[in-house]
Amino acid sequence: MVMALMVSSFPMKTHAIHIIHQSWVFDMIYAMFKPLLNKEMQQRVFFHGDDMTSLHNHVATTSLPKKYGGTRDELPYSKWIDSLSMKPKIVKEMHSLGYVVPEEILNDVMK
Fold it and tell me: Where do transmembrane segments lie in this chain (predicted)?
């Protein structure tokens, strides 16, 4: 259901979902829910476990951080979130959708 929601509600086209380092429990849960996904969605989900060469068959190493066998440096999510909070249009839209926006950020963009 989460995957179907991502594909239908996320504001980008989902070409594929790659899952790495999943546990056996996740595999079992996915096996139960897989029949509920349509064929198109089932064909977009890839499980790689700890096999990074399998991931590299789908995603170029130049697009991956080093910890996944790629060539890029790590980029903490906090930097990405901080950069988004500097864009008034994005902050206003997130707030209008019901996301909690810290008061100081909201005040800055509403000026």
Answer: none
Measured between alpha carbons, how far is residue 72 from residues 2, 16, 65, 75, 83 in Å?
Answer: 29, 21, 4, 9, 19
Token pair for 23: 């546990």
Q: Say which CATH architecture domain 1-74 belongs to.
A: 3-Layer(aba) Sandwich (3.40)
d(CA 87, CA 57): 35
d(CA 39, CA 41): 5
pLDDT tens-digit series, residues 16-75? 889 999 999 989 988 988 888 888 888 989 999 999 999 999 999 999 999 999 999 988
Q: What are the structural domain ranges in the chain?
A: 1-74, 75-111
Full-model pTM: 0.61
90: amino acid identity, one letter: I
